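Could you join me in thinking about how sequence relates to backbone shape in a protein? To get us started, please write out a protein record for me. Would you write everything just below, so we can both look at the same thing?
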Amino acid sequence: MTETEKKFLEIQNSLKDKISLSDNFKKDEIKNIAGVDLAYWKNSDHEEYAVCCIVVIDFKSHKIVEKKQYSGKIECPYISGFLAFRELPLVLKTVEKLETSPDIYMFDGNGYLHPRHMGLASHASFYLNKPSIGVAKSYFRVENTDYIEPDGEAGSFTDIIIKNEVYGRVLRTHSNVRPVFVSVGNNISLDTSSEIVMSLVEKDSHIPLPTRFADLETHEARRLIVKN
């Protein structure tokens, strides 16, 4: 293990026991939810860059309230299990540009579903001071544990249990469409996280609107940046 990995591991271990798997807010007071995603590219010198896009939507109407983006050079190398250290600087720079204050942050990625429960959604929460949810489109295997496919109906789910602990949930948001992988970020329960995800899915996509909109924004932002 390198010195960088040792440093990152120490930070993760110092934070993971502070994660709360409970709803530390009133659900009827949720107004805005922010979706967060990043897209990467390399320049002609093979230096790596990324753009972070945050899209805030109204929880009830599903209308977009605000969109912000920030791009910059990636200073941290890719190390499996430590992705948050690459992405967090850009996330926080984008958050600084927001004019609204989201009640919950939803990340295109994982939170508690991580070898040390410190995916980006969990790690970022300690800097955002808001509840957070991880919603991944693909499965991040922990401890070589495979997931069990849920039933085909919308709303069906199976929990990802590793060493008798629930790490996350495989959630079918549309009938007979591939599931998403939901995990707690911080200060929210897995049941509430799943309820929120289901309430933000519309008929044209199985991805919840906040991260779907953020994903679309990152691809367009990257295209324009690379083009120019």
